[in-house]
Amino acid sequence: MRPFNRFWALSLALSLLIVLFLGCMYDAASAAGELDVGKIRVNDEVVYDAKSPSSTLIASLGGQVRLALQQLASAFNVIFNWDPATKTASFYQPEVHMLTASLVEKKEEGIEIKWPFGLVKSGDKLDRFFVYVEVNRLPERGMEFRLNVGAPGKPGSGEFAVVPGTVKLDDTSGWIIFEVRNARFADAGDYRIQLQVRGSKTNDRYVTIGEKTIVATR
């Protein structure tokens, strides 16, 4: 059995919240019908099985469960995969570490990171900065990554341009260096840098699995 860590505690709490929330919204008598979700997996470990005695409450909620699980995954930056053949809902939470710095270089002895930062002043302009990303426990090999920068205002044309546009990792773990060019922190607020991934486990769509915030103060 895996150690009981923060993620498993969060998973249990959120599962209970989903059941309670949907139970308040739907009357069991009118919602009873075919079970929409057969199994729920978290990092390949079964946490719910429709054949178990605990399935009665979830079964009574019908087809709303799968939609709620998908929305939950999106809210907490985890990968959600739905297998219609087996009616299995799977969650995957890769380990993600992100760092913003003025310079990140690959050298023979390893990665050199200089002047990490997470705070700027509104009005600051940077010709470029770097985002170092390290990921582990991906659900499959060959997943494609991209970086998305969200600004509190409306960025001008060519601002916060990310290079490279997309990167593929051949393994289930690895590191990536993104360069963000023409960064204009015109407005005060949070600049959200999102790491997004795509593969068969995400149903071939980009989902966010990690986030780093740069705060621009007045």
Write the layout of secondary structure elements.
Layout: H1 6-25, H2 28-31, E1 39-42, E2 45-49, H3 55-59, H4 64-75, E3 79-83, E4 88-92, E5 95-107, E6 110-116, E7 119-121, E8 125-136, E9 143-150, E10 161-163, E11 167-169, E12 174-184, E13 189-198, E14 207-217
Parallel strand pairs: 1-4, 7-14
Antiparallel strand pairs: 1-2, 3-4, 5-6, 5-8, 8-12, 9-11, 9-13, 10-12, 13-14
Notes on the structure:
This protein folds into two domains: 87 residues, no CATH class; 123 residues, Immunoglobulin-like, CATH 2.60.40. The chain is 19% helix and 46% strand. It is built from four helices and 14 strands. The strands form three sheets. It has a five-stranded antiparallel beta sheet, with no helix packed on it. It has a five-stranded mixed beta sheet with strand order 7-14-13-9-11, with no helix packed on it. The N and C termini lie far apart (49 Å). About 12% of the residues have low confidence.
Physical arrangement of strands within the biggest beta sheet: 6-5-8-12-10
Q: State the total count of DSSP E strands.
A: 14
Label the overall shape: globular
The CATH topology annotation of the largest domain reads as Immunoglobulin-like
* Average pLDDT for all residues: 79
Helix content: 10-25%
Structural class: alpha+beta
CATH class of the largest domain: Mainly Beta
Oligomer: single chain
Summarize the structure.
By secondary structure, the chain is α+β, with helices and mostly antiparallel strands.
Question: Top keywords for this entry?
Answer:
218 residues, alpha+beta, Immunoglobulin-like, 2 domains, five-stranded mixed beta sheet, 14 strands, 19% helix
